[in-house]
Amino acid sequence: MKFFVDTADIKEIESLLDTGMVDGVTTNPSLIAQTGRDFIQTIKEITKIVTEGPVSAEVTALDFDNMKRQGEILAGIADNIAIKVPLTVDGLRACKYFADQGTMVNVTLCFSAAQALLAAKAGAAFISPFVGRLDDIGQDGLGLIEEICLIYAQYDFPTEVLVASVRSPLHITEAAKLGADVATLPPKVIRQLYNHPLTDKGLDAFMADWAKTGQSF
Ligand code: E4P
Predict the structure, then answer these.
(1) pTM exceeding the 0.85 threshold for the entire prediction
(2) Does 159 contact ligand 1 (Cβ within 6 A)?
């Protein structure tokens, strides 16, 4: 399972890259707004430090012609840009247009299996189902991941299931059990994955016993 980091904060990305756990980055207009920085400049800086995995950058236009125009600007920034488009009629038209040219597209704001099926048919490299936002309204976010994984396997679609709107480590382990290809995690959740109280307790005991030996090396 690949891990992307869901942030536009350059410092967070830099510090998480050091862990060796980050396979890509996703951004969205809200995450860019939180930084208070220039959109294009921020994406350029991210692609300078994340050169291997995909960096998703989202169009802000709602109509096909302007999505195409913005997508071309974004795709011109670096080879590892995945153009992010919303799951709308125009968004999927733009998805097909860019996918036909060999450009990666991440279709975002997916909330149903039917939508995911359309995105795969439009040639999306990634489909982003938002599990947390479904859970927030009392629906089953992980149930949607299960449905999409099943449908994609049934038809051998190459579109990768990118679990988005992640709220906790449980979302990750459950999505991994379902075979999701990727999860995009807020920095806080990536850090939470490392933690277990018994790891801390065990380490404290090892350190205390080691100190008693008086040795060092
Ligand atoms: C994914 O690409 C989205 O940017 C993100 O996961 C949305 O998460 P949120 O529901 O926490 O805003």
Answers:
(1) yes
(2) no
pLDDT of residue 99: 98
Instruction: Report the SS3 class of residue 34.
Output: helix
What's the gap between Cα 206 and its chain centre? Answer: 37
From 108, 184, 183, 124, select the one nearest 157 (Cα to Cα). 124
CB of 7 shorter than 6 A to ligand 1: no
| Residue 4: predicted pLDDT | 98
48 is catalytic: no
Q: Are 106 and 116 in contact (CB under 8 A)?
A: no
Whether 165 is in the pocket of ligand 1, judged by its Cβ within 6 Å, is yes
CA-to-CA distance for 126 and 113, rounded, in angstroms?
14
Could you tell me the fold of the domain covering 2-210?
TIM Barrel (3.20.20)
Helix H or strand E segment including 176: helix 169-178
Q: 82-117: per-residue pLDDT in tens?
A: 999 999 999 999 999 999 999 999 999 999 999 999
Point out the catalytic residue in the list 44, 48, 68, 84.
84
